[in-house]
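HUMAN: Ready with one sample?

ASSISTANT:
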Amino acid sequence: MASLSIRDVYKTYPNGVPVLKGVNIDIEDGQFLILVGGSGCGKSTLLNMIAGLETVTKGEIQIDGKTVNNLSPKDRDIAMVFQSYALYPSMTVRENISFGLNIRKVPKSEQAQIVERVSNTLQITHLLDRKPGQLSGGQRQRVAMGRALARDPVMFLFDEPLSNLDAKLRIEMRSEIKLLHQRLGTTIVYVTHDQIEAMTLGDRIAVMKDGIVQQFGAPQEIYDSPSNLFVAGFIGAPPMNFIQGKLVEQGAGVGLELDTGVARTALLLPFDSAKVKSHIGREVILGLRPERITDSRGAHGDHGKLQQIDVKVDVIEPTGPDTLVFAQVNGKRVVSRVHPASNPQPLTNTTLLFDTSKAVLFDPSNEERIA
């Protein structure tokens, strides 16, 4: 196992294009770090820099307290699993797993023990004599992981390893990777554009955009308290609702003016700081997760703390355990989760219950979180 420290790291290509702009990340021994973001955000470049496949323009990368900027990939004691399986088609699974061991001239008897251990861990013992062409996508990915595991490195690097798999296999392989991490306890850095993978796998998540880490923290922390509009909209499925409106005084507190086309009201918000009150009379953006807007059948806890708002239903999407209801609030479509037995109908009015206890407030001028 090894800790990882990325200190003020920049990457600029020879043509002057900046890719990474002062990245700072620290994880402890055995933690699972997710680098997540859209295409071109710099996550794969950062992974390649950790691996030694890309040079560092400025800053330091330390593995277990040792600066590795100038170390070659083979001297960093890391193993990498790529998006493409990169298996040798003419070799059996056994030969693919032991290929790196052969290169390093590991004795045959030791190789056999390692292959047995790895294949048992990944449950591919029955596949050892097959060739890649005889395997499914999920089995090939296990073999690619097995080749990395045979190294017994201090750190694993995964570069979007599940993106070539279908939806069912992705779910299965997510569980396999999580179980693998729990068994081995080895430090993992994992790149993905899929926020579901990020939330379900990681101990720590770094959300990236345009070469900058927008937020770094535990999955639930990022979900509940996103630092800006980008993070709030990127993490979560369906994404967080953004309702823009005027912040007004409401009793001793503050509220957000709402117009649903059915009702005009003010939604009471649970904020009382001076920073929030300084925005009274100005436009703000309220962030509210879909599960925080529901109906009387779907609500949990004290209904008296929920605020009733009448809306007109635009579209419904049944998902089985709940139904997504889309309605217009302040001229923008808002999605809520209601109980499937409620059976709401499009183009009819319904009453939704708003739970603002986990609401987030953003400043539209800079898109940063206010409270």
